[in-house]
Write the structure tokens for this entry.
Amino acid sequence: MKRSLLITGITGLIGGSVLRTILALDDSYEITALVRPGTSKGRYAEFGAKVEIVELDLADTKGINAWLEGRTFDVVMHIGALRGGRKFGKNTYLKANLHSTQALCEYCLKTGAQLLFCSSVGVFGAIPKELPAQNLSPRNADNYYHYTKIQSENYIQQSVLRGLKAAILRPAITYGPGDNGFPQTLVNMVEKLTFPLIKKRIWIHLCHIQLITDAFVWLLQNDWESGLALNVADREPVQL
């Protein structure tokens, strides 16, 4: 019998990679994906008829709740979010990142679905107070994106105490095929000779897209203890 999967964020680097990998595995999943209304169909055309596409904005919590009513999924993979550094107001970040997570938590609690959540090592701040950062390291809401991820994690862990089966993955800055985020920005700055001169050694942990993809797929295919939270990064840091 096929398992039913709801996934968000498929037009992003991580969500798209995870979905491609799942589709390449076998035909054992019935997959539904939420995409923002008005998103160019070319951004998800590769998935074709293998995935049911539903246009719903993550910031539209009422719409999400209404659509979920009466529907059943075995797994909810919540990867979509408004990333940091974009020009949105705090209220939009709050709705799209935190309120959507709360709605999906409540749905999973109600139906018994598993929740796999994509957070960020940003919960420890752009410059963590403890290096290397671990699960018990201090949280640092140094921007509103990080704040919404911290609050989302808190809500999930509180829901675990109420019976939710959930796991959290925190990728470091992610790079790889299809990336147009921070690593690509660094490359562009170097090519344009606009990268600032740095007089001291700075090391940074990155995360290859295949690593975080494999982590999500592992959670999908294996059993694990609810409340699991993992930082996901390449084994060795790189020097800027």
About this structure: The two ends are 49 Å apart (CA to CA). The first strand starts at residue 3 and ends at 8. Helices lie at 13-25, 61-68, 90-111, 144-160, 182-191, 209-221. The longest helix spans residues 90-111.
